[in-house]
Structure formats: C-alpha cells, structure tokens
Specification:
It contains four helices and three strands, in the order αββααβα. It has 124 residues and is α+β, with helices and mostly antiparallel strands. α1 crosses α3.
Length: 124
Amino acid sequence: MPREFSRSQRMAEQVRRELAEIVKDEIKDPRLGFVSFTEVRMSRDLSHAVVYCSVLDSGQQAESIEVLNRAVGFIRKEIARRIRARIVPTLKFVADESLSRGAAMDDLIREAIASDKKHSDESD
C-alpha cells in the first residue's frame, strides 16, 4: 500500500525544489555561500514555511541565512510565479544544525569506543 502524503508535505517538497532552483539561477549575491535546503516545514494552512538550510562553509552560514532572509520578498514572488497555488507561504530561513550535531555525536561515539578499547587492553 503506497504511503499517502498530506497536502502540506507535498507543498513543502515543491517549495524546497523551487527554492533550490531560484537560489541557483536567480540570486547572484556573492555573500551567499553554497546553500542546500534540507527541510521545509509548512503550517497546516500553508500560509507559513520554515526553511532549514545548511551551508557548505560553516563560517558563511550566518551571513548566507541573512542574505536569504533579506531576499525573501523576491524569492516568494518567484515561487508564486512558478507554482500554481492559491496561497504562497511566508518564508523564514533558519540554519540547520543537525549536520553539526550529528558530527559531534559521531565524535563522542568514536571517543567512547576508543576509551573502551583502551580500558579493555589495559585489563588484559
């Protein structure tokens, strides 16, 4: 049985795809780093969207998010032009910290394994 997706999930995925195209083709700001959109969370009434972004260079992350939030009017207008929807959501761009948290967790796990191995070698 195929999994059914809600309307907000379908709209969120469409917005994410269009955002990627708009940023790649239309926004020419040199302060904008290599941005990828990891997730879009839509409200149930499709009027608001929170867009989670990750930037390749973590030093440029804050500046890239600021550039996107300043260009939100242009981006929203482009989305309205590209998709057929009665409501175009207001957009808010935020940094996606899941990649850095995942790397930190991976480091902690590696440290714990190394520590366990060290203690087991000492006891033998």
